[in-house]
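can u do me a favor
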C-alpha cells in the first residue's frame, strides 16, 4: 500500500477462529491462534485507533459473540473514536445480547446464505445439531434493531454451489436492511466443491439485481485489511490457500506494516463507499 492511501481505513479484526457454525466455504482459518485475552484485544484496538490510519473497526471471527467480553470491547473501541461494526451468524443475537451492543455499534452484519433451511444445513450454516437461523428469526432480529437503535443492518451472502439458483430479492426487501453484500465463494483450503463458475455467478447476479445498497463482489483477494486473533496483520498467500503474517500490530509500527500490505485500493474503496 502506498503512503497516500493510508488514511480513513477500516480494520477487520478477527477475534477468534472458533464458531458454533460450520460453513464449508469459511476462510477464517488462522495458523497463529490466540486464547481469549481481553487485554490483548484492547491493545489491538488501542493501537489501531492511535495509529491515525483507521477510522473504523469491524469485529469478526469465527463467531465473535462467543467472546463474553465482546460488548465491552465494542464499547472500548467506540470510546477510542472508532466507528464500530460486527459480523455474526446471528445465532446468538438474543434481545439481551443486542441491548448490550447496539448503543455502541454503527453497523451489524449478519451472515445469511439461503432462505431454505435444508440448503443452510448443506452449506454448514448451522450448529452441530442442525439448528439454523430461520428466516422468521432473522426478520425478528432486523425489526428489533430497527425499533431499538439507529444501528445499520447489513446482510452477507456467499454465493456457492448450493445456493447459486436462489432468488433472494423478495426476502431481502422484506428485511428492510441498509446493505446486502454478495460475495462469490472463493477458493480457500478444501472448499473446491463449493465454488461456482463465471456463468453461474453472472446468472445469480442478474437474478438478484435491483436491491438498493447491494454490492456484488466477484473477487475478495487483497481487498481486506485483516488482523488475526494473535494480533498479526495478515495477507493471503500467493496460492490463496492460507494466510501469511506481515507483522504484529502490537510490536511493530502499523504504518510500516501497511506499506507491506498488497491492498487493491480501488476495489477496497468500492466496497466501503456503498
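np, heres the sequence
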Amino acid at each position: 500500500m502506498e503512503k497516500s492511501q493510508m488514511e480513513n481505513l477500516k480494520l477487520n479484526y478477527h477475534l477468534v477462529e472458533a464458531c458454533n457454525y460450520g460453513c464449508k466455504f469459511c476462510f477464517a482459518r488462522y495458523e497463529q491462534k490466540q486464547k481469549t485475552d481481553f487485554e490483548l484485544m484492547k491493545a489491538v484496538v488501542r493501537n489501531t485507533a492511535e495509529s491515525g490510519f483507521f477510522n473504523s473497526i469491524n469485529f469478526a471471527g469465527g463467531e465473535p459473540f462467543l467472546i463474553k467480553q465482546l460488548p465491552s470491547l465494542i464499547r472500548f473501541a467506540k470510546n477510542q473514536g472508532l466507528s464500530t461494526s460486527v459480523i455474526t451468524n446471528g445465532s446468538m443475537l438474543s434481545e439481551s445480547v443486542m441491548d448490550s451492543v447496539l448503543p455502541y455499534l454503527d453497523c451489524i452484519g449478519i451472515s445469511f446464505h439461503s432462505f431454505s433451511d435444508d440448503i443452510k444445513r448443506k452449506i454448514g450454516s448451522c450448529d452441530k445439531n442442525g439448528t439454523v437461523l430461520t428466516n422468521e428469526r432473522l426478520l425478528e432480529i432486523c425489526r428489533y434493531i430497527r425499533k431499538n437503535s439507529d444501528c445499520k443492518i447489513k446482510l452477507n451472502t456467499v454465493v456457492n454451489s448450493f445456493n447459486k439458483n436462489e432468488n433472494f430479492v423478495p426476502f431481502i426487501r422484506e428485511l428492510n436492511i441498509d446493505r446486502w453484500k454478495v460475495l462469490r465463494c472463493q477458493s480457500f483450503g478444501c472448499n473446491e466443491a463449493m465454488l461456482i463458475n463465471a456463468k453461474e455467478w453472472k446468472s445469480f447476479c442478474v437474478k438478484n439485481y435491483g436491491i438498493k445498497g447491494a454490492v456484488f463482489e466477484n473477487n475478495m483477494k487483497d481487498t481486506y485489511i485483516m488482523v488475526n486473533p494473535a494480533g498479526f496483520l495478515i495477507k493471503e498467500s500467493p496460492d490463496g490457500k492460507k494466510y501469511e503474517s506481515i507483522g504484529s500490530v502490537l510490536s511493530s509500527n502499523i504504518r510500516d506494516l501497511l506499506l507491506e500490505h498488497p491492498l487493491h485500493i480501488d476495489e477496497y474503496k468500492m466496497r466501503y463507499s456503498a
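The domain at 3-155+218-273 is CATH 3.20.20.70 (TIM Barrel). hope that helps!!
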